[in-house]
Amino acid sequence: MLQQAENASLGSPAVEATDLVKDFGETRAVDGVSLKVPTGSIYGLLGPNGAGKTTTLRMLLGIIDPSSGTRLVLGRDRPLEAAPEIGYLPEERGLYPAMQAREAIAFMGALRGLPLAEGRRRADALLDEHDLGEWKRKPIRTLSKGMAQIVQLLGTIIHKPRLIVLDEPFAGLDAINQAKLEELIRREARAGVTVIFSTHVIAHAERLCEEIAIIAKGKVAFDGRVDEARARLRPIVRLRTRASDGPWRSAIPGAARREGDEWVFELPGDGPEPLLKALIDGGAGIETLAIERPGLHDAFVSIAGDAAAAAMGREKAQ
Fold first, then answer.
1. Are 282 and 249 in contact (CB under 8 A)?
2. Cross-strand partners of 88
3. Taking burial as the number of CB atoms within 10 A of a residue's CB, which of 27, 125, 145, 161 is the most buried?
4. What is the CA radius of gyration of the chain?
């Protein structure tokens, strides 16, 4: 076990899963998930509710066992042995309503082996740092939902874990607390901590993640860097011209569409220079020409399909 832990600190993935399968009776919730989470990265599990994200996280943490497949967490093949080095925020939030904020944070640290006195000291510092100092001795039931969620998150990191796992951490937070959480995640990653979070909101993954796994119907449809996912699609050209017709029209692909007074189409494979030359030589009279890199939403639709993207949109609206 010691050798496993040493290997984890020498550039090995913080988390690695191979062909994880989980069956609940006749239902297969996870179907052959394989992924590698680089140490010190911010890694997102992206997909609609019911895709298998939570079940995958619970298998990685050892909360439930897979029906088949293997996992290594911080160099250990028995994830529960790594529990003192992991901070986990489940999708189902839970704090004792009568407990003071600082005591709730310290208590969560104690569950991971942190002495209560040290937990209280760290809790006071964290609450001050997040502008919640005046609420240290207030019962949880007096806090807003967003504040209580931040308190639980602080309890998740109070013991200074090497790996932080957050299941839908942004759910229910207003924009201000979402921004605070994003900054907290970035700060932990800058300190070398590995952060894994699941989400059905593409914008959070695009802003935060270096690498992602797109999960749909229990399978990994993509696993890799965000820029690699976006690079699967060609850049988009938005063109406005003074001329309505002429020889330059031969430079516009047949699949181009009109949006108002703009032509919108994929950048041809030979790049922008031949396109520009054809437009100029053909007398298009270019008013505006913009080349846009596809976003993660476009890549998600391409990889996971319209149905999964529509499901993500419905969940975000709720």
1. yes
2. 165
3. 161
4. 24
Let me know how many helices (H) and strands (E) the chain has, helices first: 11, 13
Structure tokens at 220: 């990994």
Report how far apart, in Å, the C-alpha atoms of 132 and of each of 94, 97, 128, 175, 186 are: 19, 17, 6, 17, 20
Answer whether 20's CB lies under 8 Å from 34's CB: yes
Q: Given this model, what pLDDT does residue 11 score?
A: 64
**For residue 243, what pLDDT is reported?**
94
Q: Strand ranges (DSSP E) for the chain?
A: 15-24, 27-37, 42-46, 68-73, 86-89, 163-167, 194-199, 211-216, 219-225, 236-241, 257-259, 262-266, 286-292
Q: How far apart are CA 255 and CA 251, in angstroms?
A: 12
| Cβ atoms < 10 Å from Cβ of 257 | 9
Mean pLDDT for each 10-residue chunk of the chain (318 residues)? 44 91 95 95 92 95 96 94 94 85 94 94 92 90 86 93 94 85 92 94 90 93 91 91 93 91 91 93 95 88 77 58
Terminal-to-terminal C-alpha distance of the chain: 45
Distance (Å, whole) CA 46 – CA 204: 10
Q: Is 162:191 a contact under the CB 8 Å cutoff?
A: no
Q: Could you give the maximum distance between any two Cα atoms of the chain, in Å? A: 79
Which pLDDT value is given to residue 149?
85
Q: What is the pLDDT of residue 304?
A: 79
Dihedral angle, C-alpha 228, 234, 240, 244, nearest 10 °: -170
pTM, to two decimals: 0.81
pLDDT value at position 6? 45
Exposure string (b/e) for 10-47, b if CB count within 10 Å is 16 or more? eebbbbbbeebbbeeeeebbbbebbbbbbbbbbbbbbb
Matching residue, tokens 């300190």 = 191
